[in-house]
Amino acid sequence: xxxxxxxxxxxxxxxxxxxxxxxxxxxxxxxxxxxxxxxxxxxxxxxxxxxxxxxxxxxxxxxxxxxxxxxxxxxxxxxxxxxxxxxxxxxxxxxxxxxxxxxxxxxxxxxxxxxxxxxxxxxxxxxxxxxxxxxxxxxxxxxxxxxxxxxxxxxxxxxxxxxxxxxxxxxxxxxxxxxxxxxxxxxxxxxxxxxxxxxxxxxxxxxxxxxxxxxxxxxxxxxxxxxxxxxxxxxxxxxxxxxxxxxxxxxxxxxxxxxxxxxxxxxxxxxxxxxxxxxxxxxxxxx
Length: 287
What we know:
alpha/beta, Rossmann fold, 2 domains, six-stranded mixed beta sheet, four-stranded antiparallel beta sheet, 11 helices, about 20% strand, L-valine transmembrane transporter activity, ATP hydrolysis activity, AAA+_ATPase, ABC transporter related protein
């Protein structure tokens, strides 16, 4: 079965979200030498919306995340959060503005415990001075205790197992558990927008369904907007309010999951079939 024939993950997206954009990319391009990794991209995410970015390998999806989070600077175009430009900000500054992310390859500190990894994510929220930290003032102790309570609260969002293992080194956790710790660490920064890069990669079916449930809860219970890169089309079709499709760095389609699912350009991009051959397209539609 091809990716484009995958069944939808159980559940349907919420009612369409309307309103002003939280994040907006306007005519954004990024070139590396003579190679255009992202070309003339327009993309937006509204508050409380789940938007998925899909496309074949090398389509430019992770480059888009790197542009949004300040790892790369656009060759041209504008990126705004709540109407204010974030172009030129470094990743820490983007994080302070309200955008947190996870990575396709999990980036945790293996020599630190589960709890310590989540505490690291709160570094932009701490206000104690260097001098206060040095002398362990009352304010510092109170701030540390509040940070610890917050970290445990975030771990509990994913169930009791991570709380029970908070003092274990993360390297001893399963892949799916480490992915949850990474998301908890991103949440520690109190973002308005969460960027998830392949959150179900490497997971079996049961783990994938559990991860999808967590993503839904992030929106429903925490009110987060989510921009998602995900190669499992069953996941994106079942969880997204809208889907943006990239191919060779350019947007080839955008719309509701059912619209994207039947788009000839999308089918061609995934299956290598010419969009000018409609008589062969039907057999490759997502069922």
